Amino acid sequence: MGIKSAAIVGVYEHPSRFAPSKSAYQLIGESVRGALADAGLKRNDIDGLFFAGFGMDSLTLCDYLNLYPSYLDSTNIGGVSFVAHAGHAMAALAAGLCQVALICYGSVAASQPGTGLGGGGRSTAPADQYENPYGPTVINGYAMVAQRHMHQFGTRSEQLAEIAVATRYNASLNPEAKYRDEITVADVLASRMIAAPLHLLDCCMVSDGAGAVLVTSMERARDLRQPPIAIRGYGESVGHAGGGLRDLLELGTTRSARDAYARAAMSAKDVDMAMLYDSFTITVLAQIEALGLCRPGEGGDFVSGGRLRLDGDFPVNTDGGGLSSNHPGMRGIFLLIEAVRQLRGQCGARQVRKPLRTAIVSGIGGNLGYRHGAATMLLSNS
Amino acid sequence: MPDADARPYLKPLPYLEAENRPYFEALQRHELYFQRCQVCGRSQFHPRALCCHCLAPHPQWCKATGRGRVYTFAVTYHSPLPGFRESTPYIVAYVEIEEGLKVLANLVDCAPEEVRIGMEVEAVYTPATAEITLVNFRPARPA
After folding, report:
1. Distance between CA A6 and CA B28 in Å, rounded?
2. Smallest Cβ distance to B102: which of A127, A139, A246?
C-alpha cells in the first residue's frame, strides 16, 4: 500500500560526453546498471518506469532493458521532465502503484545529431502556425526574455556572464565536465553573439549523456546502501501565451515553487544550494527570482561576485551545469543526480564547502520565450 | 507579388486549415485579425475555434489597427531554420498591438541597433507565396 515519504536511493550519471559508438539506449542501460549498484537494488526490484526522450519511447526502452513495469509515466514537458518524474514517482509510491521507481534518460545528440533532438516534419500545432514563419529558435526565445529583463530591471550582460563564469569554475573541479578551463566575464562578452543579448558562452552545449535515478519509500531506503535523500516537497506548472496576454518574466516556476515550499513546509530561507536548469544564463537568473531566492529584478545582483560558486554564499550548479558539464538535449535528470551527490557529501573536490541540509532542484523545459514546463523539488539529507 | 517559381520561398510556412484560414485570408487582404469572445468579452491571439478564456465556441473576428509597440525582441545571428539560416541577422519580436495582445513577428525596415523596447511599430504585409501573406512590423511612420 501507499507510503508516507519517498527518498532518492540510487543515482548514476554516465561519464561519457561523446559516445559515437553507442546508442542512447545503451547509455541508458549502463546508467540503470550504475544506479542499481549505487542503491544496492536489483533489476527486478524496478516496478515503475518514468521516461521521456525525443524520438524514443517507453515501450522500446522496456523491450531493450527487458523490463515489465506495472506503472509507467512518459510525461514530457521538455528537459525538466525528469524532475517532474521524481514528483510523479513520489505520488505513485504514495498511492501504492509501484514500490521502486526508475527515472532515466539518455541521448547521443552530439555524436549522432538528428537521432534525438526532434525536428523534421512539418508541425501542425496551432501556435506554431503563428510562430514558425518568423524564425523562432531555442535561443531567440530565451534572448527575448533576457532583453525584457534588461529593459524592466536594468540587468546587464555582465551579470548574466557572472553565471557562466561561476558555473565554469564549478566545472573546473568536476573531472567529468566537458569544459573545465576557467573563463572570465570578458570572455563571455567577447564570445560571438548567437541571439542578442545572448552570447555563445551564455548558452548550454549539446553533448551526449545519460543518467538514472531510483526512488522508493523512506522505510525501504533505510535498508539500502546509500544514505537516503528525502523528497520533501514538489510542484509543477507551465507557462505560455495566455491567450496573447503573456508576460515573459512570469515563470511557471513561481507556481511550482509555491507548491513545493508549501508541501515541504519550507521557504527559500531553508535552502542551502540549488540545481537549476541552465539552458541559458538567463534561465538561471529568472529562476532564482521565481524561486524567491531574491526579489524580482534583483537576480543580477544576486548572481554577481562569484556567489554561485561552490565556495560561494549560495552554490548553484555545482557540477558545471549544462553550460559546462553536459547537456544531452534534456538535462533535468542531472539536476537530481548532482543534488543527491552533494547532499550525500560524495562530490570530492567539488563538494560544497558549507554544510548542506536542503537543496532545491528546479527546471524549465521547452522554451521560456514560447511555451514552457516548470518543476521544482526540495531534497534533504535528514 | 513575387514569382514563386522564380524565387523559391525557403522559410517555414503556416499550415492552413479551417481553424486558422480566416486569419491568413485576412492577411492576404492586408488586414490583421484577432478575436473577441461574444460570451465572456475577452480577446485572444492567436485565433482559435473557441475562446481560450471560457471555451465558448465561435469567438468573433475583429480587425486590429495594426499599430503597436515592441514588447521585446531578439536579434538572431544564428539560426538552423531553412530560409532564416541564409538571412541572418533577423529580428524576432513580440509586438503588443493596441488591442493589448502580443503578436510574434519579424521587425523589418529596421537596423538591429535601432530597435528599442517600447518603440512604435506598424504592420506591414509581406507576400511569401501566391497563397500566403505574412504580417510583419516596421517602425511607425507619421500618417
Report:
1. 57
2. A246
- The 3-class SS string of B70-88 reads EEEEEEECCCCCCCCHHHC
Cβ under 8 Å to A: B residues 50-69: 52-53
pTM, 2 dp = 0.96
Low-confidence stretches of chain A (pLDDT beneath 70): 1-2, 115-121
Q: Which residue in the set A127, A132, A243 is minimally distant from B53, CB to CB?
A: A243
In this complex, is the C-beta atom of B117 within 8 Å of any C-beta atom belonging to chain A? yes
The CA distance from A3 to A25, in Å, is 31
The answer to whether residue B93 neighbours chain A at the CB level (below 8 Å) is: yes
Pick the CATH number of A136-205+231-380 from 3.40.50.10490, 3.40.50.1370, 3.10.450.350, 3.40.47.10: 3.40.47.10
Dist CA A126 CA B61 (whole Å): 17
Closest residue to B76, CB basis, from A122, A130, A135:
A135
SS3 A97: coil
Hey, which residues does A11 pair with through a beta bridge? A213
Q: A6-117+208-229 and A136-205+231-380: same fold?
A: yes
**Hey, are the CB atoms on A131 and B134 less than 8 Å from each other?**
no
ipTM of the complex: 0.94
Residue B65, Cβ neighbours under 10 Å: how many?
11
Domain A6-117+208-229 is of which CATH architecture? 3-Layer(aba) Sandwich (3.40)
Predicted local distance difference test score (pLDDT) of residue A120? 52
The full set of domain ranges for chain A reads 6-117+208-229, 136-205+231-380
Residue B8: its pLDDT value, please?
Answer: 87
Residue spans of chain B under pLDDT 70: 1-7, 143
- pLDDT the model gives residue A1: 52
Q: Which of A129, A244, A248 sits opposite B14 (nearest CB)?
A: A129
CA distance A170 to A183: 11
**Residue B14 to residue B19: CA distance in whole angstroms:** 12
A-chain residues near B106 (CB < 8 A): 134-135
Yes or no, beta carbons of A245 and B102 under 8 Å apart: yes
Domains of chain B and any CATH numbers: 18-63 (no CATH), 65-143 (2.40.50)
- Distance (Å, whole) CA A152 – CA B95: 16
